[in-house]
Amino acid sequence: MTRADLRGLFLFEHLADDQLDWILEHAVREDYPAGTVIIREGDPATCFYVLLSGALRLTRLVGGSELDLIRSEQRGAYCGATQFFMGQRGEQRYSASVHAVSDLTFLTLPAEEFAAQFRGWFPMATHLLDGMFLGMRNSEAVIGSRQRLLALGELSAGLTHELNNPAAAAVRATAALRERVAGMRHKLALLAKKDIEPDLLEQLLDVQERLVKQVASAPRLTAMQQADREDEVGDWLEEHEIEQGWDLAPIFTAAGLTAESLEHVLDSVGATLLDGAVRWLAYALETEMLMAEIEDSTTRVSTLVGAAKQYSQMDRAPHQWIDVHDGLESTLVMLGGKIGAGVTVVRDFDRSLPPVPAYAGELNQVWTNLIDNAVGAMNGSGTLTVHTGRTADRVRVEIRDTGPGIPAEIRERIFEPFFSTKPAGEGTGLGLDISRRIIVDRHGGALRVESEPGDTRFEILLPLD
3-class DSSP state for residue 50? Predict the structure, then answer.
C-alpha cells in the first residue's frame, strides 16, 4: 500500500507523511475467506483491524446465544482492539466476535505498538478519549441498571395488581361455594325427610340439570332489564308464598330463569314441595354460577401468566419469526396497572399481517418505552391507540396518544441519549435512544415521530424479510 491508499481511508486521511510511513511499516494486509471467525469474543485484544474490502459481522454471546450486533461492508470500518488508546489499564480483551460474511481483506496493526505511537502523536486527544470512554461507560452502567430496576418494579407492580383481582375473586367465590354446597346438602336432606316419591325426586333432578345447563347461556341483561326480570320473578315467588323470595329472585334472574321457568318447577314437584325445591334449586344454580366465576378468575390468572411469559420471551430463541400483535398485547397487559382507568386503549390491529423476523424480547422493550411515554404524556386521561398495518414490504406499528404533543424545537433531539423532557429524577433519557437502536440498528427498520397537540404518533417500520 502507499500513502495515497492510506489517505483513502477516513481514519488516516489527515495524518502527516511520517505518521503514514509508520503505519505502512507496521501494518499487515490479511485476507480471510467467507465464513472465517477472525476474532473471538474474550480473547486478548492484540490487533486493531481496518476493513479494506468485503463484509463483516460483529456478534456477542448473550444468555448463551449468539447475538448479531452489526454488519458492515464500509471500507475503513474498524474493529478488534478499539480501546487500544487506554494503555495500561489491565489486559484488554475483544468485546465481540468478528465473522467474515464474504471474502474480505483487513489492514492489521499491532495494538500495543499502535497505542504507544498514538499516545505520542495525540497526547491530549488520548486523555480526552480515555476520560470520555470511562465516563460514558460508568454513566450508562449506573443509569441503565437503575432504569431496568425501575421498569421491573413498575411491571411487577402492574402484574401483581392485575393478578390480585382475579385471585381475590376466586378466593371469595370458593368460600361462598363451600357455604352453598353445605346449604344444598341441607335442603336435599329436608326434601328426603318428607318421603318424596322416587319418581318425583328424579323429576326434580331432571329439572335441576335442565336449569343448570341454562346458566352458561344466560342472556346478558341491561340494568333496566335485570330489575324488571327480578320484579317478575319476585312477584311469582311471593304469589306462591315462598318466604324471602326477593332474596332468591336475583339468583334465578342471573341464571337466566323467568317466572315461566318456575311454573315448570311447580308442575314437576307440586305445591307441597315447592318451597324446598325452589331453595334447593337456588343453591344449585348459585353453585354453578360460583364455579363459573372461579373458572373465569383462574383463566384470567392463567392469561396474565401467559402474557408475562410472552413478554419476557421465556424459553424462546432470541431471534424468531413473530406476530407483532403478541408482543403488543402482552405489553399492554404488563402495563395495565400503570395505564389506569382514565386512559382508553384502542386496538386497531390488522390481523392479516404476516410474521416478521425479529428479536421479540427487544421489540417488547420498544413497545414498553413508547407506550409508557404515551401514558405519561396524557397524565392519566386520554386515548392510547395501538395501530398495525402494512406499508409496501414493511409492517407498520403506530403508538398514538392524545397528550399535549412534542414541541417542534425539541422533536429532533428526543432520540439523543440522555435527552429527556421529563422533570429531573423522572426520566433517564435513554428510552427512545435504546428504542431507535433496536429498531434501526438491530432490525434494519425505521422509527419516526409526528406530533401536534392532541395527536402524537410514533411510527415503527419493520422489514418483512
Answer: strand
